Amino acid sequence: MSGGAGAPERPEERQRFPPPGKSFPISALRQNGLLQALVRGAEQAVGAEISEELQRAQEEWEAVEEIQSGLGGTSAGAAPPISFNEALQYFQTADLAECRVRAGPRALALSRGVVLKKVRATARRRGLAALVRFLFGPPRLQPQLQGERELALAMAQCGLDDNERVHMRILQTIYKKLTRSRLGCPRYGTHWEELGFQGTDPGTDLRGTGMLGLMQILYFVMDSRTLPLAREIFQLSQHETQNFPFCIMSVNITRIVLRALREEHLSRECNRRQQVIAVLNDLYAAAFLRLYRVWKRQRKTVADSGFLLKELELSTKKKPKQLLKSLEAYVNRNPAADDLRQPSPPSGGDSRAGEEIPFTGVCDLQLEAEGETRPI
Question: What is the C-alpha to C-alpha distance for residues 373 and 375, in angstroms, rounded to an integer?
């Protein structure tokens, strides 16, 4: 008896049609040939109608996929996440002399003709300051580490470039990691404001830190040890009353640790570890950890940010080793050894120590000339 209810199901039917109550995803329809088989039925009278309808549906699906891919219709949103090491290798081999700081005429004048070997790595000291530095200051960075420090400073002069695929992958990876989204996002839009940028274009908020500002966020979210912390801080930044712009705060912290590097406050630790960028990244994460703890426990708001950033700057210069130990204790989950102490008030010797430093977006900050000190 052919065609009976008990007739066995042919293997090809099982491959082409889903079991009852279950549907195939769009990609599966394309792979198993079901869509193509229906379209080929256009030669039949009824099949022609179905084929036309399926063709429209297919075009709609492709349009949806193109929108989801992000970056204004390009496929960059579908690109795999980029690791910090891969991005760093790109900058190590890139022609950084072509980088330009997008921070106005003054910064552009400083950046024109920049060659990696000519990037000044230290703040210039004269007179008594130079003598005190020689007698009592931190040790100088060892010669074999100079190139790595110059690379970090060069990245800080490199602006975000829409035509550089690696730059776009860095941006997309940060978005996906912080939002836990599997989809990409457009290059411009209000979704960047939700991450804590000032506007629809993250590139305008990187003044003074350039791609180093994004690279440090990338390190923060791609390192398995610090990703939980990054997400906790990002969650706090969305708080109803304690909210703050996450990415703008991050860029400010990058500027702080970059200044500590230029003034050679990190040379001792860099010499000990024989690394520069890794020390810079760890100090960035450690500073963010300190800020997060104080902000959460003392119920700080954006109005307090200027003072806290000033305190953070003093800590990165005077006590970088203490901050790094605190981070190490955090990632090792050792509360007994963790430094949970709140930052002490600034010493009375500084006439500006008690002054409230206004919190400003990076767009409002000008690139510093060599040796020039300016509050964050």
Answer: 7
Q: Is the C-alpha dihedral spanning 347, 322, 329, 211 positive or negative? A: positive
Under the banding of pLDDT at 50, 70 and 90, the label for residue 101 is very low
- CB count within 10 Å of CB 157 equals 24
User: With bands split at pLDDT 50, 70 and 90, how would you rate the model's confidence at 142?
Assistant: very high
Q: Measure CA of the first residue to CA of the last residue in the chain; give whole Å.
A: 86
Phi, psi of 34 (to 5 degrees): -65, -45
Helix axes 165-179, 227-237, angle to 10 degrees: 70
Question: How much of the chain is in helix, strand and coil states, percent to nearest 5?
Answer: 60, 0, 40
Greatest C-alpha distance within the chain: 106
- C-alpha to C-alpha distance for 266 and 283, rounded to whole angstroms: 9
* Residue 235 Cα distances to 102, 242, 293, 315, angstroms: 30, 10, 13, 25
Among 103, 368, 139, 129, which residue's Cα sits nearest to residue 259?
Answer: 368
Contact between residue 203 and residue 159 where contact means Cβ atoms under 8 Å apart = yes
Rama region for 64: left / alpha / beta (φ>0; ψ in -120 to 50; rest): alpha
